[in-house]
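Bench notes, afternoon.
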Amino acid sequence: MKVTPKKHLGQHFLTDSTISARIADSIQGHMGYKHLLEIGPGTGALTDFLLKGDKKITAIEIDNESIPFLHSRYKGQENLTIIHGDFLQTDLNTVEENLLGVTGNFPYNISSQIFFHILEYRDKVPEVVCMLQKEVAERMVGEKDNGILTILLHAWYSIEYLFTVPQYVFDPPPKVMSAVIRLKRNDRKKLGCNEKQFKALIKVAYHNRRKTLRNNLKSLNLPTEYLANEYFTKRAEELGVDEFVKLTNEIEELKRK
C-alpha cells in the first residue's frame, strides 16, 4: 500500500528518521499533559517516534488515502487513536477532557489557520511542537518582521526556534526551508483589556505594514491631539503584546468620553 503526497493538501512527507526523532525528543510535556494530538501523520514518519514516549496519541488525518495505510500500519496499537477528519473543524474539547499537546509537520498552506484554531483552545493546549516553513517560524519567534498572528501567539505562549530542516529530507522536496519551533503556554490568565477590542486594534494597526500607527489608526476616529503624540510615528511591528494592551485600554477610555 502506497500513499502519494498530494499537492492540494500541501503534503511533503518526511523521509529522514533523524529529524522525526528530534521533533519527538523536543516535546517536553509542559504542564504535565498526558495526551498528544498529531496533525497530519501522513505515512507515520513522526508517529513512529511519538509512540515510543509515554503519552496517549491521537492522530488526525484528512487524506482519504492515508487513513487505511495508517490503520494497517498501526493495527493493534493500543495507545494510538486515528481520526479521519479536518483539524481546523475539530472541537478539541471532544478529543480529551484535560490538557492536550499538539505536534506535527504542519501543511504550510494552512499553518496560520492551524495556529488560530489552537489559540481558541489556549487553556487546553499547553505545548505545541511543530514543523513549518522557516520564514513563518522566524516571524513566530519575532526574528523577522512579525505580524498579527505573532502578537496573538505571544500573548499566550512563549515561542522557541529549535532547528532548521533542509528541503532534501522530504518527498517531494518543498521549495522552501523548514524549521521546528516549540510553543509553551505562559502564565498569563487574562490580557488585562477587552480581548475582542485587542484583536480588532491589532488588525487595524497592521492594515498597512509600511504605514505608521498614526496613519493606520485614523480609521478609528480618535482625537487628533491623541494621535499627535510622537509615539504614533512607530509601526505596528515595533510594538509588543503589553503595548497593544495599553493602547487598547487607552482607546476604550477615549471612546467612553
